[in-house]
Every structure is written in C-alpha cells, then in structure tokens.
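Weekend entry, working from home. Most of the wet-lab plans are on hold until the incubator is repaired, so I used the time to fold the two sequences that have been sitting in the queue since the last round of cloning. Logging both here for the record. First:
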Amino acid sequence: MCISQTQALRKRSSVSDASTTGRRLQSTSSHSTVGEFTAKTTSPKRILEKHDSIDARKCLVAQAGLENFIHSITAPLDLTLPKAVRFNMNGNGRMQTWEDVYMAEQVYTQCLGISKRIYQMHAFTHEPDRKFAYFILEEHNERSLPFLPGFDFYVLVFTYYNDNNEVTAVDVQYDQLSFFLHCVGLAQMHAWFMECVVTPFAIVWAKAYSKSGLVNPFTFMLQLVLFPVLLMYYLEVL
C-alpha cells in the first residue's frame, strides 16, 4: 500500500515538474511552447520577452492605388507622413520623398501594363519599443493588355517611425524575379521548370555532397567554378 502511494506521488510530482517547466517556456498570450536551445544572440527568455511586448492585431485596409493605401495604413498607429522619407525598394531603388514614391509607382505600373492595383493589408505586427511595424502587403494586379495575365503578389513591408509618430523609413522586400515573371506571364512555366527539372537534380547533388563530408564554402565555390568548365568541355567533345 505504501509503495503504491509513493509511486503515485512520484508520478504526480514528475507531471507537476514537467508542467511547471512547460509553463516557464510559454508566453502568457500563447499556448505554444518555446524549445530549449542555445544561441549566440538570443534565448527562449528573450523570445518570450519579445513576444509579450509585440502588438499583433488584425486590421483590414483595402485601397485602389498606392497613395490611398499608404494614407490609410497609418491610421491604426496614429502615424503621420512628413514629406521626407527613406524609402528602400528592395535594395534596387532608394527614394527620399513620398512624391517620388508615388510618381515611380505610377510610371512603372504603366510600363509593365498594369491598369489597376488593389492593395490589401489584413494584419500587422507592431514593436513599440523599437518604433517599428511590419506587415504583408497583398497586391491584386489587373492588366491593360488582354494577352497579359492578371496576378496576385505578396510583399513584406517594414515601417519605422520616430518619437513624434512620423514615418521616417520604409523597407519593401519581395522576390523581384518572381514579380517580373508574373508580369510577362512566365511564372507558371518557371515554377514547373524549377520543380520538375532543377529541384530533383539539386536534391541528388545535395545528398551526395552531404555524404562526402566536405561541405564548406571553399568546396562549394570550387564546384561553382568547375561545373561550367566541365559542362563546356563535355559539349565540345560531343
């Protein structure tokens, strides 16, 4: 009798310890646990602290045209738009005023045969401590020419503001190759080629490379140099 009671108490204790440990790794606003790990610049504790300080909310904004959309998305955080802004367009274009941003958007949409753009945001993540917010921008693009297909596209937008709630910088990131492939109607063909031709070959190469035990930047760069040389030699022999 005593033995069975002792075993039962031990089981309860182990379950209690496990649940306590799990509770320590849980945020107050989430039921998902954070794994145990080590890293140079972060930890489970820091991740939980960041999670508790983040304001993530649903917020629907849908507008035709970039200028209308930008003025609408500032409302949830009471942000204002001064004339000057550091606008980084995927690292390929840097503009300093909102006027230039709106003008550039109008010009390149006409050049790409886009007649109408519906911009949407359904949720955003806000980090007040960093004065920083980001969201996924959804674009619905309609075309001006009948042989050009319409398409939807997704863009990651980072917004920074100052103590006066003025937007100071915007960083827009997206897959530029995919965007232009959609514009010319080659996206599906490219997706098929990468999935059916390139990916099987890449998986076979990765498995063989991993088993060789020589995975490092030097051998990888060496392969990038040798592969085209050997391919050209093989074609000349044929």
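Second, folded right after the first finished:
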Amino acid sequence: AGSPIANDPTLRPFVDGWTHHHVSGAAKTTFGNGTLTSGSWGIPVFTNEMEYQPGSRYAGTAEGTANSVNMFINSLVFQNAPLGVINLHASKPVQNLESLGYGWTWWRPPTTNSTNLPHVKSGYFDYNYWNWAAVAPFTKMMPWDSQRRNVMEDQQRVNQRVFAFEKPNGDGRLGVVLTNQQPPSSSSSNFSTVVGFSDGKPRVFEGFRFIGSNTSATFNVSLGVQRGSQLATNLPPNAIEWWIEQ
C-alpha cells in the first residue's frame, strides 16, 4: 500500500504482479495472512524468492523441507497466488555455505578445493534432498495450469496442510498434497486424516512420501494404491505426501 507505483493509477496497469521475498521465514507467517495481499489492487501476489540462510533452523532439516512446502501451499491458498517459487536456486556450489538452504542441487566447480561433499566430482552435480524433496514432486506430479480445488477442513491447521488440485486440459484427475510439519520444540506426532470428495465418486489414488534428508532414502517412497470414495493416511513427522488419481 505504501509503494509509489501501487498508489499511482497511471502506473498500475503496467504491473503484472506483486512479489514477496521470504528469507529464513516460517510458513506460519503466511498462514491466513491477509496483509500479504493488502493494497494489491486486485493484481496477483506471489512468492518469487525464498531461501534459508546459514544458521537458520530450516536449513538442512526435515522441518525446513516441510516448511518450504507449507510456505508455497499457503501462498496458493491464502494469497490465491497463480504461481510461485520453492527455494530459489537450481544449483549452488559445494563451497558456498548458502547452498544448504538455497539450492535444489550441489555442483563442484573445477576451480574449488573445498572438501565439502567429496562424493560430488569436479564438473558434476548431486541433488540436495533437503530442498529437492520439496520441489521435485511439484515439477513431476502437478502439471502447469493445474487448478487449485477448494478444501473444507474440520479446522485449518498451521503445520498440517491439506491441498488439492485438478489436472488441466480436460484431464480432470485430482491430486492431494498433505504435510505434517513438526517444529523441534514439539513432541513428535503423526498426523492422521481422511480426505473425502464432494461428489462421492470412487477413485484410485497412488501415494508417494517425501521427507527431507541428506540422502535419497526418504525421497519418493511408494505408499501403494488406495481405492474408494475417501483417502485415509497417517503422516509421520515432517512428511509430505502426494496422492495422485490414476
């Protein structure tokens, strides 16, 4: 609202969107936060940059992975954002301390003598699963131009989010994303929930689980198939689950 451009009616027609940059931010700050769209004049608001600085409790932690997903989901739900960014950089060099909370991958420049991540050979890259576990399923399982679908929760939970979308171009199949973010100060607890569908139509869903880690051990773990008019699941701490209609 305080921006000279936002307050100038002759300039606003040239603005396609307003953006937020979240640095080491907690997803709870975007939960139900109407101030993020205040003064937008009906112009879309989205997150164009986010990362975790060195020393952040979210950098290189499973909670940070779930926090990244919750931050993005909250921007779609509460800001009605048409798009957004989960962590910022496709790749960061192994010698850069920011890499842990910034990049989807690590890469080793031929000019560095860093002893970090010795398995990454010069000129090669490897996935940073702390961040890639948050990003990858969106790129793989949620096609561009998918439509967000309304979710009526028994209560809206700050750390446990339920998000649904419909695939585009007449496909019509649904996807459901669930999270169970667990702050370090909380006692670890699972999140059990049942997702129903307003049309009562029986469906077949295949499930996949992602938990942030320094390896691929908890990345894209198969949860098998569920059939019926409801989807029931039990998420361990900091799990992100994707259920895709077949």
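Plan for Monday: verify the second prediction. The mean pLDDT is 93.
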